[in-house]
Design goal:
With 729 residues, this protein is of the alpha+beta class. The protein has 31 helices and 21 strands. Among the domains are: 15-156, Hypothetical protein af1432 (Orthogonal Bundle), CATH 1.10.3210; 479-584; 587-646, no CATH class; 654-728, ACT domain (Alpha-Beta Plaits, 2-Layer Sandwich), CATH 3.30.70.260. The structure holds manganese (II) ion.
């Protein structure tokens, strides 16, 4: 029969049993040290008992045994012995470090942190739990594997605690530990935990299933034996040696099937699963061919996880056929190594890739973690849980190097950039999430790996305040904008005063030398010269005020005729306007005579810089900008137009859709994409459709700076001879 890993509670387990088992796969381990770790745990727990009445040490022993079954390394097994001593006894990490080693001490510290999670509300608790898990995993994934082994044994012995506690722990296991085991590819632990959850959450269903499965046991056993024989004979006839196992499916997967189809157990026929283990990948496909010719395959049920492995590393061929007795049976075909990966997931990966003896640095595990996180969005099972149950408090995202950042819900790549470093934030031009370009407005999800792209010429704009969600980013952007504004005002004030001084036959430099400029700022309540410039630039102080505070000019200024004074005033007003325009680089559109008004680009015609435009005042919604020729504005906008112009200082990219009709030719989409990219234009998305007459239609959403960049892009697309037409849509 199927010999999957057996995680049953072993009542009489001793440290000698554990050590003997470790010896079988890791003969060179330091068994003296391992024994010392065990003795430390035994001593610490000597006065404690489990809810079952057994001596407490039976729990750490069973946890260690589970880790042995997963073929974990010596440090993890020792951490299994000691995992509860810091939390439950008075042992300190330092003592573990001295008595055993620093690595085990670190693992126990990690485990203690995870178990100290305080559940205030379900949502908060789970988000916090997930955060700690992620942080623990980023440091050392073994912490999570030991934790899974701990939870496995607690679930195995859950019958000894109260009903309410059973339900609570089972629910938590299903919410957090099952998805984690799945994510790490440890299927043996995952299915075992699922069955145990079912047993304690829905005992009625569980025991009814157990009974039904048991009732037909002898009938089924003979059926399994018979099928095994037929299968292996068929394979042998074709010269293929194999090991075949068969067993009823896990209760939880039968339960899920019943729930999904809304049927009862009697109507679930495919409760048997067979596993064919062969020598290599070629033989896997050969075996599949043989099985499909001997039995009728059920259409649509074949899955090739060898060619396309699951995100967690799982590889196998799956098929479903009509078996010898006209029952549907599921068959999995895989190699030995794939089978081990399927059962023990990340643990097996560890053994094969790194070798059991190699020293494992933190970095290795961070890298591995990243590997697991890279395609996290594809793993719906994991992400669903994250989204539904865990992703409530905040989001937890990774840098490409594996550092974890906690951001508030709804955070964007821009928030992330500012969380990394202010300079990364202010220079952010774009971001990749899980390797794909995303808009800055993208909402980050837990598990995302975010890579920020920066440019030295980039500066924050007022628009960014609408994108970011975190107060840190908002503050930093405001600070930056304020500084820019002050810088502008300073330049402007300097300019205005210099001009004024000259018209009175002097200049800033000589007034500074005589010390008169110092008097000027002091008399106007400024703390330094720069502040005076800023005040003049912003209009807080008038030029006249400053001039009158300069002793050598005071008399002249008072005597100056009105015409001259008017000229200075006009000049400073002009400078002021120019400067204001410059500092308003955060709006794509400049609205005549209006500051700080909400401007919306109309969706219907989606104008980009270079298009002639018209603004319409919309009640409560600011100004909507349409192309000058657009006729689709709202009735409400109709009669209230306002003069608008494109802001030359604005440097945001604008999305535009371009439709391309081509003759069908292999590789055309990739060729077009390359051409567009080569003009320096980013493609946000591409949509392909085949048309009759061997033609293809593509819609590219490109990001362009302005109309001329769009024209350039269109021209480059038109240069392909397969292209029939290019249109902005
Ligand atoms: Mn424990």
């Amino acid at each position: 029969m199927f010999q999957s890993l057996d995680f049953s509670h072993e009542r009489d387990l001793t440290v000698d049993d554990v050590i003997r088992r470790v010896e079988s796969y890791y003969p060179d381990a330091d068994f003296d040290l391992m024994r010392r770790a065990y003795e430390m745990a035994e001593k610490a727990h000597s006065h404690q008992k489990r809810s079952s009445g057994e001596p407490y040490i039976i729990h750490p022993l069973n946890v260690a045994a589970t880790l042995v079954k997963l073929r974990m390394d010596a440090d993890s097994i020792m951490a299994g012995f000691l995992h509860d001593v810091v939390e439950d006894c008075d042992v300190t990490p330092e003592e573990i470090e001295k008595e055993v080693n620093p690595a085990v001490a670190q693992l126990v510290v990690g485990l203690t942190k995870i178990s100290k999670i305080n559940f205030k509300t379900k949502e908060e608790g789970q988000a916090e739990n997930f955060r700690k898990m992620v942080v623990a995993m980023a440091k050392d994934i073994r912490v999570v594997i030991v934790k899974l082994a701990d939870r496995m044994h607690n679930m195995r012995t859950l019958q000894y605690v109260s009903d309410a506690k059973q339900k609570k722990i089972a629910q938590e296991t299903l919410d957090i530990y099952v998805p984690l085991a799945s994510r790490l590819g440890i299927n043996s632990v995952k299915s075992e935990l699922e069955d145990l959850c079912l047993r304690f959450m829905h005992p009625d269903i569980y025991y009814r299933l157990a009974e039904k499965v048991a009732m037909k046991k002898s009938e089924r056993d003979s059926y399994i034996t018979e099928t095994l024989e037929v299968l292996s004979e068929n394979l042998l006839d074709h010269g293929l040696k194999s090991e075949i196992k068969g067993r009823p499916k896990h209760f939880y997967s039968i339960y899920k099937k019943m729930a999904a189809r809304g049927v009862d157990f009697e109507q679930i026929h495919d409760i048997l699963a067979f596993r064919v283990i062969v020598g290599n990948i070629t033989q896997c496909y050969k075996a599949l061919g043989i099985i499909h010719s001997a039995f009728t395959p059920i259409p649509g049920r074949f899955k090739d996880y060898i060619a396309i492995p699951k995100v967690n590393g799982y590889q196998s061929l799956h098929t479903m056929v009509i078996g010898p007795k006209a029952e549907r049976i599921e068959i999995q075909i895989r190699t030995d190594e794939m089978d081990e990966v399927a059962e023990t997931g990340v643990a097996a990966h560890w053994k094969y890739k790194e070798g059991i003896h190699s020293g494992k640095t933190k970095l290795d595990w961070v890298e591995q973690l990243l590997e697991f996180n890279q395609n996290v969005t594809n793993n719906s099972e994991f992400m669903d849980v994250v989204k539904n149950d865990l992703d409530v408090g905040g989001v937890f995202v990774f840098t490409p190097r594996g550092d974890v950042f906690e951001l508030r819900h709804g955070a964007t790549p821009l928030d992330f950039a500012f969380a990394v470093h202010t300079q990364v934030g202010t220079r952010c031009v774009g971001a990749k999430v899980n390797g794909k370009m995303v808009p800055l407005r993208y909402t980050l999800k837990s598990g995302d790996t975010v890579e920020v792209m920066t440019s030295k010429s980039q500066t924050p704009s007022k628009d960014w305040l609408n994108i970011v969600k975190s107060s840190r980013a908002k503050t930093k952007i405001k600070q930056y904008l304020l500084k820019i504004e002050r810088d502008n005002h300073k330049e402007m004030g300097k300019d205005i005063l210099e001009k004024a001084f000259r018209s009175y036959g002097t200049n800033t430099k000589s007034l500074q030398k005589t010390g008169e400029l110092d008097k000027a700022y002091q008399n106007n309540g400024c703390s330094n010269i720069d502040e005076m410039f800023i005040n003049v630039g912003s209009g807080k102080n008038s030029v006249e005020q400053i001039l009158k505070a300069i002793p050598s000019l005071k008399k002249k200024v008072t005597e100056t005729d009105d015409e001259e004074r008017e000229k200075i005033a006009q000049y400073s007003q002009k400078l002021n306007q120019a400067a204001r325009r410059k500092s308003h680089k955060d709006n794509a559109v400049i609205v005549d005579g209006l500051d700080d008004i909400v401007v919306r680009i109309a969706r219907c015609c989606n104008p980009i810089p270079g298009d002639p435009i018209k603004g319409y005042i919309t009640r409560g919604r600011g100004i909507t900008v349409h192309t000058a020729i657009c006729t689709r504005m709202d009735q409400a906008e109709m009669n209230r137009d306002v003069q608008v112009e494109w802001n030359p200082a604005f440097s945001f990219k604008h999305p535009v859709n371009v439709r391309v009709i081509t003759h069908d030719k292999p590789g055309i989409l990739s060729n077009l994409s390359k051409t567009i990219n080569s003009t320096g234009v980013n493609i946000r998305s591409a949509l392909a459709k085949s048309l009759p007459d061997r033609k293809g239609s593509f819609i590219f959403e490109v990001e362009v700076k302005d109309y001329s960049e769009l024209l350039k892009t269109i021209a480059s697309i038109e240069s392909h001879e397969e292209v029939i037409s290019v249109n902005r849509v």
